[in-house]
Known about the structure:
Radius of gyration: 19 Å
Strand content: 25-35%
Strand order of the largest sheet: 5-4-6-3-2-7-8-1-9
Amino acid sequence: xxxxxxxxxxxxxxxxxxxxxxxxxxxxxxxxxxxxxxxxxxxxxxxxxxxxxxxxxxxxxxxxxxxxxxxxxxxxxxxxxxxxxxxxxxxxxxxxxxxxxxxxxxxxxxxxxxxxxxxxxxxxxxxxxxxxxxxxxxxxxxxxxxxxxxxxxxxxxxxxxxxxxxxxxxxxxxxxxxxxxxxxxxxxxxxxxxxxxxxxxxxxxxxxxxxxxxxxxxxxxxxxxxxxxxxx
Length: 232
């Protein structure tokens, strides 16, 4: 059984509007597909959005390929805004053609012998995914798409890779803050360092250091929960 990590990107001048909104929107740090149904031509997709989902929801009615877009709170109720300090859950009903890799993954899944692991991550103009199974159907599906999608295989291994929801999701500054905090003993019990100590090493204010740590910790917590799935 092979574990294949792939990255896909679309030329910015030819990118479908939805792809551009998810991968390049300034208000969205990262969008992760945490559940989906790609069986029909109109896919149902549940996203965890780090950042403000409002611009994405507001432009949805005018975005080609989007049939529905709404923020859903943790209890499953629809609302117009995300939860402050946490990843907003956004439900999308879209045409698969609105995001090229959806069509590729659906074709590959249709060939059998593959599992696409979630989360699938939209970040900085690219999509990152991990596929388990025979990479042959996946490669064939990508080649069939032609030149409108640029795909690279980052790794093929016999063992699971670290979750893409963690790998590369932290900003350089957030990662630096975590490293400094750990080295100073911030995560020891009892704590051996404070936000002020971390800030002194980072050259910023204690408030800024605390914010870097909070955001990094939130991403790591989200990644851990996405990995184990919802509680029964």
